[in-house]
Amino acid sequence: MNHHTDTSTLNDLIQVLNDGKSFYEEAAPKVRSDLASVFQRMARTKAAIVADLQSAVASAGEKPADGGSFAGTVRKWYAEMRTTLSADSDAQYVAQLEEFEDRILAEFRNAVEKSDDANVRAIAQRHLPAVSRDHDDMRALKQIQEAHAA
Length: 150
Prior knowledge:
Layout: H1 7-27, H2 33-59, H3 70-85, H4 89-114, H5 118-149
């Protein structure tokens, strides 16, 4: 039996991770140093997962995605505008990046729960702890920011 890897789902995951990685990299130099180090760590985590996913796509004989998504580009532009207009840009970056983390986590959970390809489910499941950790870290940062603003 010839098994065809669901590279479309893997490429979707690559794109959503690249969206987040790109936004973290752009935001890091614009925030205070403690947040910058968190943002840089988040970008490195996403880059490592992307490399693994791209390897899986290439191993299946397909071309891996190397950029982000149109939706991610629009979302990043919107977030940048909100941050520019905000009185507390650090808090706004955290809030916007937490929304990116929501999207990334949802995509990975969807791949784990709904992909017809057992290999794709296994790959997504393998990375789900790191994706969940990043999501939880950003949610906690957002809650801290909101508590300080109150």
